[in-house]
Amino acid sequence: MTTISTTPPSWLAAKRKAARALNTEVWLMRGLILLSGAFLVTFVLLPLYELIRRSMENRQGEFVGLENYLQYFSTPALAQSFANSLYISAMSTLITVTLAFVFAYALTRTCMPFKNVLRTLALLPIFAPSLLHGIAFIYLFGNQGIFTNGVFNFLLRLIGGYDIRAVPPLPFEIQFNINLYKEPTGIILAEVFYLFPHVLLILMVALSLADARLYEAATALRASRWRTFLTVTLPGARYGIISACFVAFTLVITDFGIPKVIGDGVSVLATDIYKQVIGQQNFFMGSTVSVLLLTPTIIGFAIDRFAQRRQVAMLSARAVPYQPKPNPTLDRLMLAFCILVVLAILLVIGTALIASVVNVWPYRLELSGRHYDFSKVAGGGLDAYWNSLRMAGLTAVFGTIIVFVSAYMIEKGRGLGKTRAALYFLSTLPVALPGLVLGLAYIFFFNRPANPLYFLYGTMPILVLSTIVHFYTVSFFTATTALKQMDREFEAVSASLAVPFYRTFWRVTVPVSLPAILEIGIYYFVNALTTVSAVIFLYSANLKLASIMIVNMDDAGDTAPAAAMSMLLFFTGIGVRLLYELVTRGLKQRTQVWRQR
Amino acid sequence: MDEPRPTPYLQIRHLRKTFRTFVALEDISLEVYPGEFICFLGPSGCGKTTLLRCIAGLEEQDAGEIIQDGRDISRLPASQRDFGIVFQSYALFPNLTAAKNIAYGLENMKLPRAQIQARVQELLELVGLSDFAHKYPAQLSGGQQQRVALARALALSPGLLLLDEPLSALDARVRAGLRTELALLQRRIGVTTIMVTHDQEEALTLADRIVVMDHGTIQQIGTPHEVYRYPRTPFVANFIGEMNFLVGVVAGQGWVQCGAHQLRVSRLNGLAQGTSVKLAIRPEDIVIPTAAPAENTLSARVQHHEFLGAFYRLRLAAEELNFILDLPMAQARDLDLTRQDLLPVHLPADFLHVYPS
Ligand SMILES: Nc1ncnc2c1ncn2[C@@H]1O[C@H](COP(=O)(O)OP(=O)(O)OP(=O)(O)O)[C@@H](O)[C@H]1O
Ligand SMILES: [Mg+2]
Question: Which atom of ligand 1 is nearest to B59's Cα?
Fold first, then answer.
């Protein structure tokens, strides 16, 4: 071997001393932790505080305690929407979680064929604004709906190009009326379609984490399939199920798009806020309703946090991944089920697509591109679409940077332990904040000349910031999970080599987490493109967004152009996703060589 | 170990570390001399890693001082202390090649490229990995990864090398080989080294001095020979090597009463008559006398014997006293263990340790 100097080379010692003398990085780290804190406090905590404060004031700005709440519950129509909201949310959560569980089970625990295709199709609605489901439901079950007027009648006219009056009543027909506008059934069903992909994603993760050894033990004990399912599968997935319920419930109760489009006769909390604020300019009642809307989501949030904390030790490092075994009967049954679900999803999206490309629904069903010409309808024409793209792009870039840096500081930072723990909690909070509530809180907080950030009001930055906060928690968890998988000691090693943390962050942490970072970016982009609720209070007349245009067009009775815009956003989302896959495949191949053995 | 010692390179004084209410380290004082190889040895959870991390500045102690090379580093952040470290997980940067991992600290110092390359080459040769410079960690075996981590830790010629169970993730074969290499390398470079381990064999073979720890306290500091031969507490006696314990009472000057037997001991450590004590003796120190029985000789019944290659391990009972005895093969051959069930056994007074109980 070689000889190595027993005393360090003198040049090295000198250099080392120089490097170690630098103390700036300690302050930089603290500064960045505090900056993350300032961001979360300014854009989550303070607006929320302002909202709650306003809900206890009257029109003159005097403190009135709980008077607004008493008034709310003593107004029968308003109290009714509280009950409606709870009922609709509970029902759609129950239905969706059940269906999605079976679907996820089929994908993860059986040997059903065509898994990839079925999964991809089932996840498609994630690219659609919730409004699209509402609009599709109008075309399916509304006054002129396919089911309301007869399926065969519709098909005949679609294929044959007949005028509606020329088709005589058919001897056999699928025809029924769910009373879309007057009963909650329609809203519940539309919400199920909207929720399905979100819930499916969570349950797929929960069910894919299975320890084969438990199943082997169950088999060895001669437990029946059903008993194994009840004693091993369900308990193993219970935290995922709780999480899925929480996410589903929150999404529905805070969803504004679907009830807005189809629920004229059924009022819910989310639309109440909108009516109070936009319709009656009654900000105080708006904030009161907002706080009411917060209550169930915060309770759900607390339950979910509690459940997740208990999950930690569930999957040991020695777990053996579960491999499903073929079971022809079960596999075929599951395949049939999944195909039915996917067909239903395609039916809803397909209906919106057809409605957007025919001349006059339901009278003249010949192909026409006229609804995609947005220059003649209420809203902002194609400008709104470009604004949306810009907004989504900015949100993706800045959201990813803010989330990842802040998650890094919280997870890997040193010092300020209590602050970091508090920041972790604050980062998980936005998931419990409905978009409308967030938007209203931002109005209260930023639309005051006394606020130094007043200049943000009505600008692109506030749209971007509100969207970043609105979708913060899921992105934060993606980042945290990726960071947790990294060796805990990278930072310690860097410190021992006198390398400042930001250098290691750039040279190691970012490249290693690249897949997660890109995932956060695309998540932000797609959601920013389709979101309505947070931005509807914040956009300004000269800064319109496509998703809001859909609401306005629908309000004005331009349902077909609204469907067209929804489809445009839907295809943009899919296009960007495909582009992303293409680009990242190249990028991953270049930067991730080290993953291969 | 009797030559006059130079000034200590590292001094730890009355160090205390708590996690909320849990006391992880209590009144730790320790001196490490230049070029020494020190092992922290103790059961899981006794605070070895915590102490190492305090020295590195990765944990902040509640009280106490750490002085390295004459400089009080007690409150300095890790990045301003002078050490290289190897973790159990190695913590190699997965997206950098072996050479880049080693060069990581050097590159940050804005040294000329040629100088960095020369140094990396030198280190790669030092750990015998010249052919693997451009492999990524995932493409290296566990042992090779461990060497890269070591080379990276040595790259800046630190004054102090810290190793936290660097060999424990490897299988037994590789481990024994690397152990020897590590010892040779440390001797050659002469870097002051502290290694954490819970493997006593590792500590005994590698260390100049061993620091035996239990429940956040130091139980004994000494050379491997000292801690093995003269364990200061029953814990050390029990933790390192095999040890028989017999319960007794001090019967007089140099005598301990153990049940029905009176045993002579060489060192009573000033324990007064009537004190209850624990006697300890290693299985290999008990002998089967060939000559006529002298003092400290009992008649014991063989209850069980195991063949362990180089020796037999006998389980013996002398009335109510139970103990084990390791009998070298050479001697075992002369005795027919299957037939002889009553044996005379001699417990040499010099090898009987006495602890107050
Ligand atoms: N960050 C921490 N927070 C709370 N307790 C801790 C923390 N780190 C260590 N401890 C506790 O301090 C004690 C000593 O831990 P340490 O890691 O030093 O043990 P160790 O001797 O290295 O054990 P092992 O051989 O298992 O690595 C343990 O009981 C551990 O639970
Ligand atoms: Mg340890």
Answer: 1
